[in-house]
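Continuing the batch. This is chain 6 of the set; chains 1 through 5 are on the previous pages. Same settings as before, nothing changed between runs. Recording input and output for traceability.
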Amino acid sequence: MYKLIIKPLAEEDAKDAANWYNEKLDGLGNEFLLALEATLDAIQRNPNHYQIVYNELKRALTVRFPYGIFFTVKEDAIYILAIIHTSRSPKVWKKRG
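Output for chain 6:
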């Protein structure tokens, strides 16, 4: 199995999104984190399932929440670079890739 490495900026992205959802509805941020965890598990199981969107950067979409998880695969490790709302500019994740 691949080793999953979540970069600090991606962790910050996830925390910010969870906090935003919790402000809208108590507990919704926790549901977002569960959806995120499920998608990260799927990426870890089969990272080659996901399409390349820019250079070697791949994207997986979360279920229920409009977020993309942007990552690269190098040898036996998956690097999560960004967790970004799908309406945000691609410049955000392209700078991290």
